[in-house]
Amino acid sequence: xxxxxxxxxxxxxxxxxxxxxxxxxxxxxxxxxxxxxxxxxxxxxxxxxxxxxxxxxxxxxxxxxxxxxxxxxxxxxxxxxxxxxxxxxxxxxxxxxxxxxxxxxxxxxxxxxxxxxxxxxxxxxxxxxxxxxxxxxxxxxxxxxxxxxxxxxxxxxxxxxxxxxxxxxxxxxxxxxxxxxxxxxxxxxxxxxxxxxxxxxxxxxxxxxxxxxxxxxxxxxxxxxxxxxxxxxxxxxxxxxxxxxxxxxxxxxxxxxxxxxxxxxxxxxxxx
Length: 272
Known about the structure:
Strand order of the largest sheet: 1-2-3-4-5-6-7
Number of helices: 2
Shape: globular
Radius of gyration: 21 Å
Number of strands: 14
């Protein structure tokens, strides 16, 4: 009877991969383009890193769960989760088998809110599986106060290892930005000219791909791949391979919507 009970518990934990995320330290490596609750439809048949969750296990050792999604196209979608050491990057293991995988998906969407992470999977029978994970330990910097130590300002003082039923209110420092157009400057050789300030954009931001791991970013909102707009990033596999790079000779790192073509202005692709 005890053996059956343990197998039953193991199956529950396997079916719901998010039970350990309630101990999340933070959510990192979030995909730069997908919006909360957006049904992910492109780029088709390409693996994408959606986000990663850093958390502590029962021994307070830190790990990272990388969440990958192969966007449906000619084949059905696949969601997989790979657990790695927290110092590794998810892109290093993107094409390895997942520790857990969900196949034959018609649609997938996710949402990362202040203290809640939600995932929704729709399978080939149009049955929906949803996980809502409270993020008890994700810490936001409080407003600095008199007599507050620098250590207290930089990190959380409490680690919740059990469900927290109270109401935790943290008021983060508010920042405003005005008249800022380019919020993250990236050079032609892919080096970072200045740190990103895009989190200060009042109405969001968008990136123009340039074949680098990250392209220049601008304040505002725009739908990539549409006429007159920046082209969309095809995926992190499609990046410039040579130091000498010319978008007009190789624009495979970007794509436009149906009926449109990529036109390069320098190394920045637009759709016409």
